[in-house]
Design a protein that fits this description.
10 strands, TIM Barrel, alpha/beta, 8-stranded parallel beta barrel, globular, two-stranded antiparallel sheet
Length: 329
């Protein structure tokens, strides 16, 4: 599979863009474990052109994570074009347009998945951004606004006509948010539409190696994007790749190994934010979701303590004490 001149090989795996998750510290770990393309957190076009420091920081990329995509969102044509030009100066490999974020503060203002209610403007933004920059432009979106408006098959053709070089589809509507099961049938319909010639990337509910293989085989997508399944589990890319290549599952990771990766991620996050407390707080979503602590009996009080820790020394001491207090694998 290729996007422009970037060759990702067969059945590549992409790290989905996620706010407060896909910072450089996490992207580098996912890259190390086999992610073929990583995406930044969402970048607000409005904030970028106003030179908001936190937003500008999101444009930071390092050579080790390439290829990397920077994703922007907004609702105004001129603002998105100006932001795209600023992003191009940061020299990512790909610029991605976010037409899929469902959260109220984005979609409710007409950006992200809110664009699914104004298709003419979505297409105008896409055309103008493609014309304004020289790096490849891709799009990430959803099936439609709600169950009565699943428009993705027609929309995919329209976006392709605007000049994008790949399309990622999350198998839910905006109304679903992240609830229910992702429906990949329409993703497959887009992929198998003879009029489509750009790569189609499937996204939604990829949490196991078996499901990744099943969906590659069943729907024929060019790549699979992993989002929430990677939170607290950057090694999922290694698990999936091994299964795709061998048909077998990797031996289970030990508790000590998993916690060593979690600690490394926390330390990288602290370094990235240049603030220990902010780094610890930033890690809590990963701590809450990591499979390292799943299935441990009577673990709730320890989980609460981990999520309340205020320093890396306190947090690491708690993690180191777990094997002495609980039965772990």
């Amino acid at each position: 599979m290729k996007i422009n001149n970037i060759d990702f090989g067969q059945q590549p795996l992409f790290l989905a863009p996620m706010e407060d998750v896909t910072d450089p510290a996490f992207r580098l770990l996912c890259k190390r474990f086999g992610a073929d393309l990583v995406y930044t957190e969402f970048v607000s076009a409005d904030a970028l052109i106003r030179s908001v420091k936190r937003t500008e920081q999101k444009l930071t990329i390092v050579p080790q994570e390439r290829p990397v995509a920077i994703q922007i969102y907004g609702r105004d044509v001129d603002t998105m074009v100006e932001a795209a030009r600023l992003v191009e100066e940061a020299q990512p490999d790909i610029l991605d347009l976010n037409f899929g974020c469902p959260v109220k503060k984005v979609a409710g203002k007409g950006a992200g998945a809110g664009m699914l209610r104004d298709i003419p403007k979505m297409l105008e933004i896409t055309r103008e951004v493609v014309k304004a920059i020289t790096i490849p432009v891709t799009v990430k979106t959803r099936l439609g606004w709600d169950d009565s408006q699943k428009i993705i098959v027609e929309l995919a053709e329209q976006l392709q006509d605007c000049g994008i070089q790949a399309l990622a589809i999350h198998g839910r509507t905006r109304a679903q948010m992240y609830t229910g099961e992702a429906d990949w049938t329409l993703i497959g319909e887009v992929k198998n539409n003879p009029r489509m010639h750009i790569p189609i990337i499937g996204n939604g509910d990829i949490t196991t190696p078996e499901r990744a293989k099943e969906y590659f085989d069943k729907y024929g997508v060019d790549a699979i994007m992993i989002g929430r399944g990677s939170i607290g589990r950057p090694w999922i890319f290694e698990e999936v790749k091994y299964f795709l290549e061998t048909g077998k599952k990797l031996p289970p990771y030990t508790f000590e190994w998993q916690t060593s990766i979690i600690k490394e991620h926390i330390l990288r996050g602290i370094e990235w934010l240049n603030d220990e407390r902010k780094g610890i707080i930033h890690s809590r979503r990963h701590l809450a979701n990591t499979p390292a602590f799943k299935g441990i009996d009577n673990f709730k009080p320890m989980r609460v303590a981990l999520l309340r820790a205020e320093s890396k020394d306190e947090l690491f001491e708690l993690m180191d004490s777990i094997p002495n207090q609980f039965s772990v694998q």
